[in-house]
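Marked as duplicate of an earlier ticket. Keeping the data here for the record.
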Amino acid sequence: MLFSDSLWIWRNPQKALQRVEVQNWTLVEEAIQEGHGLVMLTPHLGGFEIIPRVLAQHFPATILYRPSRQAWLNEVVEAGRAYPNMQFVPTNLNGVRQMTRALTRGEAIGILPDQVPSGGEGVWAPFFGRPAYTTPLPARLANRNQTPVVMFTAIRKPLGKGWLMQATRLAPLPEDSLLAATEINQALEIAILKAPEQFIWAYNRYKHPAGAELPPSNS
């Protein structure tokens, strides 16, 4: 269903936008008006591909993504995601620099907080009771200039009815990477439990990436 959602959103962006019910939008406007940009967290839940398109109707958004190892699939995804006021940057140093510049301009950046980072770039933090290698990048970027952090979800409504998009502003994240990653995972758990059947459980959230230290339970 999630793959079908993504394809439909990519091919019918305007129709998809008409089928989004947005809640708590005032919260988003207030955050962006603070002038420090916006860090938006969008887990692999429901119709998450619609979220940056909604935001792009109001202000520019730079989205961090991991290119596929398969060139043909990467071309399909990049073509599908192409949209005005949205820029996708790869998960490397150059991509992070572009996101930092976007925040300096007061724009939004997007990160998939449930994506396992490369070895050496994350920390082991609890996720539904098990250690999961988690990115502390949202906290690092947000804490540079007191940038608001907002968790977005787009829960799928009954077939053909669209999505319910909700925003929740997180409290300022700690400077400590482990504490920040733990708080991000806690916010993820709350978001996922709203519609656990719409989360990509098939994705190996608990994998051990090459180059990463062993999780605490295995040390």
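See parent ticket for discussion. The chain has a mean pLDDT of 87.
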